[in-house]
Design a protein that fits this description.
- The chain is an alpha+beta fold.
- The chain has 2 domains: 33 residues; 120 residues, L,D-transpeptidase catalytic domain-like, CATH 2.40.440.10.
- Helices cover 14% and strands 31% of the residues.
- It is built from 2 helices and 9 strands.
- The strands form 2 sheets. A 5-stranded mixed beta sheet has the order 3-2-1-9-4, covered by helices on one side. A 4-stranded mixed beta sheet has the order 5-6-7-8, with helices on one face.
- Strand 1 and strand 2 form a beta hairpin.
- The radius of gyration is 29 Å and the shape is globular.
- The relative contact order is 0.17.
- This is L,D-transpeptidase.
- Keywords: Signal.
- InterPro entries: LD_TPept_cat_dom.
- GO terms for molecular function: transferase activity.
Length: 187
């Protein structure tokens, strides 16, 4: 009788082992399961890529080829070049930019002047100045960084077209945008 009991216990233990190791059971892979969390992770719709807030997608209808894209609505710059494989293009860098009191009209321009360091139209010393347009009223539009890191005052009385970048980002544009580089301003 003891032998039958031992065999019965062995069979039950075997079936219990198999049931616990079944592929539809948590922990069946032998890997530890992640601990439950209260964090709510939104579902991503099938086929849709969620945009990275630090690197938003290049705006549609922003031109082709090597160019600087400036979005008035997003207040952001994209530095775009040809892809290394020669098929298409790639964004080298994107970062926020801060408008002044006057915005350039959407359109295609090109870099006309570069100055390493000058006084800004608001009197603040600026560096890495990349000018791309002067309107009929004489307002100069360009990208720059305040040496002290300050931003333009969009409520100021002076009409200026300086688009400020951070001192950390401005070297990227300075190295990228030579005189003649296309600048596309989008709404």
């Amino acid at each position: 009788m003891a032998v039958l009991t031992a065999v019965a216990l062995a069979v039950v233990a075997f079936f219990a082992y198999q049931a616990n190791a079944a592929p539809d059971r948590p922990g069946a892979s032998g890997k530890p399961e992640p601990a439950p969390t209260d964090e709510i992770v939104p579902d991503k719709p099938d086929g849709d890529e969620q945009e990275d807030p630090e690197n938003p997608a290049l705006p549609a209808d922003s031109g082709e080829g090597v160019r600087v894209v400036y979005s008035l609505g997003e207040q952001r710059l994209w530095l775009v070049t040809e892809a290394l494989d020669g098929l298409g293009e790639e964004v080298l860098h994107t970062y926020p930019a801060h408008r002044s009191t006057v915005d350039p009209q959407p359109g295609t321009y090109e870099v006309t002047r570069r100055d390493e360091a000058i006084p800004g139209s608001d009197g603040v010393p600026i560096q890495h100045v990349v000018v791309f347009h002067t309107d009929p009223e004489g307002i100069v539009f360009g990208f720059s960084a305040a040496v002290d890191g300050s931003l333009p005052d969009p409520s100021a009385q002076a009409r200026t077209g300086g688009i400020r970048q951070s001192p950390e980002d401005s070297p990227q544009l300075w190295d990228f945008a030579e005189v003649g580089t296309k600048v596309v301003v989008v709404p």
